[in-house]
Structure formats: C-alpha cells, structure tokens
Inverse folding.
C-alpha cells in the first residue's frame, strides 16, 4: 500500500524549518540580484479569522514570489494588517473595551493561520496600520499634502450610517445598507478631508508608460483616471441662479432639449422653493440618498428621473429655455453635478428622452443629409472624423464637426460663459 501522507507532520516540519532559518527573510541591502516586490492587500484583522477569499488571493502572489526566487530574484513579500478601521472601532463602541488588545489578539490569530497555510512571507517586515510607528508616517504624509494645498476640508456627499455613526465607502454599502450590521445608509453632505487626486492625474497617466504592467491593466487605469479635454459652460436659470456643465461634445450644444442635475446636489436645494412639484422632487431625492454611487452609475440600467416642474435653464448659444430634471445617474461628487442632454447624439440621453417624452433636435448629419435620427441616437463614434456636418446650429450649419467644435468653443469663451478645461475622474 502507498504510504499515507501525514500533512500534520510534514507541514509542521517545514513551517518550523522556515521559521528557524528565516527562509523568506529579505536582505534589502543585497544588490547582487534583481529585485522583485510582491504585495498583497492587507486584511482587516477581524475576530472571525481568515475567510476563504484570503488564501484564494494570497496563493497567487505566493506562487509568483516563489517562482521569482527560483529565477534568482531578491524577493520582498511582506504581510501587514489594516487594523485602524471600522471593525476595531465598532468593537470598541459595542463592548466598551479598548480595541488595542482585541486587535493584537486577532493579528496573532491571522498570522498563525497564514503561517499554517505555508505562504512565503517575510514576517520580519510585518506592519499593522494601528501601530504608532506606522501611522506616524501616514500623518507625516498628510501634513505634507496639506501644506502643499492638496489636502482639503470640504462639504461633499458621503454614505452615512446613523447606527454605526460613521461614513462608509461604496464597497461597504450593499443595497442601501451597511455591509457590517445591515443598517440603513443614506447620502449626506458632510465636511470631509479629501486629497486632490486630479492634481496628479497627468503624472499618473505618464507613469503608466514606465511600468511593466499588461496593456489591458494600464487601460483600465487610464479609464479610471478618466482624462477628458472639453469645455465647461455656464447656464443661467430662469428667475435667478446658474450652474455649469462639462462636455467633450460642445458641437452638439444646439441639440440640448433638457438638462439633468444631481438630486443630492446644492443646485437642487436652492430650487426647491421654486418647483411646482416639491413633494415629488423630495421623494425622488430621498430614494436617491439610499443608493450608493455604483448603483447610481455603473449598475444603473433604468432611466430614472424626476422633472423640476416650472424651472428652466437658458442655453447660452441661442437663448432657448430648456426644462430641468433630476436623475440619480448624475452625481454631485463628480464633475459639476449637472449634465446637458442631447438625445439625438447620445444613447443614454435618447433613452431618457423617450421615457420622459422629451423633444429631439438633430444637429449633426452626413454630407448628403441622409441620416434621420428621430428614432435612435446618432452616436459620437458615427460622426467624429468622418466629415459629418452641423445642422440646426444657426451660423455653424454646414461646418465640419471638428471645425465647429473649435468655433462654438470660441464663441462661448468670447461671451464669457465658458472655459476650455481638462477634466479627470480621479
């Protein structure tokens, strides 16, 4: 019979050997080999210990770091614990105990489990974010960002959980409730410290050209940063007030038939005493506040919205009044918190206009004038760079799209109601 594999004896033997011989310890001063750095996402040291997702991800980096060692690299593969967060805070709140001892005990449990799994971590480099020796550097970095003007204290919409008494990230909100405890979460304007990531957008984009990542991963990062070159335009509101929109398609401005504002934005608050349907508007706002940003954007398959009856914006290029709506797909925290809607040249705007029975104005056609978009949207990729021309755009009729883009921008800038701008999502 084949000998039975005694995993307790064999694994204990090697774990002891690795510990005593410091097999995976990295000599950071060894410059004789090429270096390789493998970094895992640090776990929260909760009281329940590791879950199945931890070894699933950590196995991949373990394979990579072991392979690189065999290829002659000087590998640094550390482990740490994200121990300065909500789980520790909630433990302290619910038990009345200081989280330090609880957290240290959990870290010991996690470390024991990770060692039993045989991962090749250099445990001499282990950190915990709740350790003053670590977070003093977080404080130092924040101070430097603040002194340089990149850390700002501003009012912004956040995911607020009253029962937990804290702000939650989008990842911690599931179907309008906190992942931890299942408590209701709403959107609320609060003072928050934020880092001006957009100030670093260009540097981040340039840096992607210097790193050895798969091109598909780099493209995801570029889309996440979301650099766009366009125009920011001011729109007056009939009866007083104004707001701005950012667009990369200024050539379609004559085709605006409605505008959409973020329900949770400051613009709408200032209009509540002027709308003819305040109860309907407030009910829509209340429903929006229960959703996280992902539900409102990437996962939003409906064309939800509510009219601000009796309130209109003025299109600065032609003086026409267009109705205002609120829609949960527009975020107060992104861009200007308002968008222009041209249903003949944007699929989402077209579907929205159909649902809410809004008019369509076609402003771009081919040189033969044979495209009719009354029943669908004439998408941007269908006309840019193909010699298509403007129509229903006053003095710009017949002008090629790319020339019209520049000419309309100049007109608006000269009027003092627009600015050329580079915008980034992050």
């Amino acid at each position: 019979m084949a000998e039975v594999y005694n995993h307790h004896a064999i694994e204990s033997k090697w774990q002891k050997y690795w510990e005593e011989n410091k097999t995976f310890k990295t000599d950071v001063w060894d410059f004789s080999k090429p270096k390789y750095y493998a970094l895992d996402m640090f776990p929260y040291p909760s009281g329940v210990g590791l879950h199945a997702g931890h070894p699933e991800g950590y196995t991949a980096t373990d394979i990579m770091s072991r392979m690189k060692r065999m290829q002659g690299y000087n590998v640094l593969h550390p482990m740490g614990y994200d121990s300065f967060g909500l789980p520790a805070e909630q433990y302290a709140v619910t038990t009345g105990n200081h989280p330090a001892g609880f957290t240290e005990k959990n870290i010991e449990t996690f470390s024991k489990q990770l060692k039993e799994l045989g991962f090749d971590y250099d445990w001499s480099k282990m950190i915990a974010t709740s350790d003053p020796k670590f977070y003093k550097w977080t404080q130092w970095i924040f101070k430097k960002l603040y002194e340089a003007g990149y850390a700002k204290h501003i009012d912004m919409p956040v995911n607020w959980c009253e029962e937990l008494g804290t702000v939650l990230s989008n990842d911690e909100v599931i179907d309008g409730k906190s992942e931890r405890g299942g408590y209701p979460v709403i959107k609320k304007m609060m003072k928050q410290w934020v880092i001006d990531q957009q100030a670093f957008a260009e540097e981040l984009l340039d840096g992607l050209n210097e790193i050895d990542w798969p091109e598909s991963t780099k493209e995801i990062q570029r889309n996440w940063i979301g650099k766009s070159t366009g125009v920011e335009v001011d729109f007056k509101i009939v009866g007083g007030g104004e707001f701005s929109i950012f667009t990369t398609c200024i050539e379609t401005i004559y085709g605006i038939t409605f505008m959409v504002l973020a329900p949770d934005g400051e613009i709408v608050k200032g209009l509540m005493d002027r709308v003819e349907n305040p109860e309907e508007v407030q009910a829509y706002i209340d429903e929006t506040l229960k959703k996280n940003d992902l539900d409102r954007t990437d996962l939003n398959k409906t064309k939800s919205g509510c009219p601000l009856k009796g309130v209109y914006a003025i299109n600065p290029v032609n003086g026409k009044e267009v109705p205002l709506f609120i829609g949960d797909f527009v975020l107060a925290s992104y861009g200007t918190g308002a968008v222009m809607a041209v249903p003949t040249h944007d699929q989402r705007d077209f579907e929205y206009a159909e649902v809410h029975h809004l008019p369509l104005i076609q402003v771009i056609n081919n040189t033969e004038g044979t495209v009719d978009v009354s029943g669908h949207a004439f998408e941007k990729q269908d006309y840019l760079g193909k010699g298509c021309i403007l129509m229903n755009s006053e003095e710009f009729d017949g002008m090629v799209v790319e020339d019209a883009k520049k000419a309309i921008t100049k007109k608006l800038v000269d009027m003092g109601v627009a600015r050329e701008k580079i915008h980034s999502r992050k």
